[in-house]
Design goal:
- There is one protein chain.
- The protein is an alpha/beta fold.
- The protein has helices spanning 69-75, 110-123, 144-149, 176-182, 197-210, and strands at 2-14, 17-23, 35-40, 47-50, 59-65, 82-89, 100-106, 128-135, 153-159, 169-170, 190-194.
- It has two domains: 2-89, Elongation Factor Tu (Ef-tu), domain 3 (Beta Barrel); 100-210, Nucleotide-binding domain of ferredoxin-NADP reductase (FNR) module (Rossmann fold, 3-Layer(aba) Sandwich).
- Helix 3 (144-149) links the parallel strand 8 and strand 9 (153-159).
- Bound molecules: flavin-adenine dinucleotide (FAD).
Length: 211
Amino acid sequence: MKYKTTITKIINETYDTKTFMIKKPANFKYEPGHFCMIRTGEQEIAKPFSLSSSPHEKTLDFTIKKVGEMTTKMFELKKGSEIIIEGPFGEPFKKENCNKYAFIAGGTGIDPIYGFAKNMEHENKNVQITIFYSSKTLDDVLFKKNFDLMKKVKVIYFLTNENKKINGMINSRINAEKILENIEKPKDWKWKAIGPSNMVVDMNKIISKIT
Ligand SMILES: Cc1cc2nc3c(=O)[nH]c(=O)nc-3n(C[C@H](O)[C@H](O)[C@H](O)COP(=O)(O)OP(=O)(O)OC[C@H]3O[C@@H](n4cnc5c(N)ncnc54)[C@H](O)[C@@H]3O)c2cc1C
């Protein structure tokens, strides 16, 4: 389904990433893990963006990094600007009879996982969520304050391009050794890697090896 809706709020998350909070159309239903095709009023081409909100929240949120033509246009939009969304598309994360979820995220790959984590906290189900989250530098890390408040969620932060040593974060790429230090019996967990395609290929190799 295609919907014409409006931006209700814009949050500056980092120097190059903003969350666009969008008025939820009355009959729009989605699950964490879904994405939408988004187009501004002016543009012909729609591009995919994951929902970083949880279905229990009032708005549809998209956390977007400025990288090229479309995202630069998005960054010019203001509260009240019109936007066209189509969806939801993709496969939701929530699985029947699963209470241990392990994610490996790179960059804005964290967006749908954040939506899922908020949803699990809200539903207060008996689940454990562990997230291995890689960013270039401390300034690129998203949602840390909110993750810190979550009871069911443990985030292990990796910084690949940070000169300083940051307390509680690991200055390296995500690797099998660090994963195994944090997860007992990896076979018991439901795994998913989300991020840049080359990273997902490497992480899926690690996941296959340890599960
Ligand atoms: C299922 C799915 C979900 C997604 N969810 C999100 C999300 O939640 N948040 C998010 O931020 N992104 C998300 N993305 C990625 C998002 O769709 C792209 O970032 C977006 O399409 C980029 O569009 P653009 O026109 O701004 O960039 P484009 O202009 O298409 O540029 C794309 C790439 O080319 C590079 N590039 C562009 N112009 C130049 C140039 N002049 N010189 C050198 N390099 C250049 C950019 O660095 C960028 O890496 C998702 C993608 C998929 C497939």
